[in-house]
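Quick check before the chapter quiz. The format below is the same one you will see on the exam, so make sure you can read both the input and the output lines.
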Amino acid sequence: MVIRCISALIAVLLSAFPALAEDRIKVVATFSILGDLARNVGGDRADIATLVGPNGDAHVYSPSPADAKKIADAKIVIVNGLGFEGWISRLVRASGSKVPVVVASKGVKPRRMEGGHGHDHDSDPHAWQSVANVKTYVANIRDALIANDPAGRATYEANATAYLGKLDALDQEVRDTVAKIPAERRRIITTHDAFGYFKQAYGVEFVAPQGVSTESEASAKDVAKIISQVRRQKIPAVFMENVSDPRLLKQISDETGAKVGGTLYSDALTDGNGPAPTYIDMIRHNARTLSGALMN
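Here is the expected output.
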């Protein structure tokens, strides 16, 4: 009886301490937003590495030999899917690894695009711009971690449940913020078409002179069309992005009088010193920045 009590006490004490670094499951996420989601679910049981870091553009990323080493050492690789990381299959092959590749967007209804807009597919990959979609991402990440580390099931389920609650609150916050913007002012210009899911979820119209990829260049005809549209519809503001060239929007702003409303974060988080170091911070910042520009 005494021995059983001591054993139980030891087990409780051990569970109170974070897993040692060498005991943590090694997870590779392709870009910063996925890395943040994986950290929230994995907690102390997971060691998360991210290939494309803060303010990095996954559209044009060129993997390095060090990235192949990260893949080779990993137990799980988490990708967005929907054609976002065109380079990931080559990288996994180059690593020589049989590591499971988890598609975080599995189960999300893709937003269809006409002509691909610079990608080799017809689906908009930026599904994380809808908080409801990210709840699907979190569930997929949770299930993948449990499958590869069954001993951590209770931790992963508790972490995911807590984070999903935060996402529910965030989703409502964004809806409340947008609802205060007059309907006729919910139109803006951005540098590339990364906010289609945000538009579907929250009712803000985004017009972009580029397609969904930052690799595609806007033509002079496209820019002229946008300028005409801004003037015709009296679009009040244009917004920069942290992974796009701002010169295009400055030209549109100069020629139309639409004000530059600030910076939105689309495909990447900021570092810890920026306004969007986590996914929740990013969505909250974007909603508040839109509101601040469109309400005035």
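If your answer matched, good. Confidence is low (pLDDT under 50) at residues 10-16, 115-120.
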